[in-house]
From TrEMBL:
<keyword id="KW-0449">Lipoprotein</keyword>
<comment type="similarity">
    <text>Belongs to the EcnA/EcnB lipoprotein family.</text>
</comment>
<keyword id="KW-1003">Cell membrane</keyword>
<keyword id="KW-0472">Membrane</keyword>
<dbReference type="Pfam" id="PF08085">
    <property type="entry name" value="Entericidin"/>
</dbReference>
<feature type="signal peptide">
    <location>
        <begin position="1"/>
        <end position="17"/>
    </location>
</feature>
<protein>
    <submittedName>
        <fullName>Entericidin A/B family lipoprotein</fullName>
    </submittedName>
</protein>
<keyword id="KW-0564">Palmitate</keyword>
<keyword id="KW-0732">Signal</keyword>
<dbReference type="InterPro" id="IPR012556">
    <property type="entry name" value="Entericidin"/>
</dbReference>
């Protein structure tokens, strides 16, 4: 039972870490897009 709980906990940690990474990547892409858009307006 302890092994299953440990495995589940580790899987959830990796899933949450992946979500944070993807979310951060999305923010970076958004800022890059805004920079390109602002450069195009000038």
């Amino acid at each position: 039972m302890k092994k299953i709980t440990l495995l589940f906990t580790l899987m959830m940690m990796f899933a949450l870490a992946g979500c944070n990474t993807v979310q951060g990547f999305g923010k970076d892409v958004k800022k890059a897009g805004e920079a390109v858009e602002n450069a195009g307006k000038k």
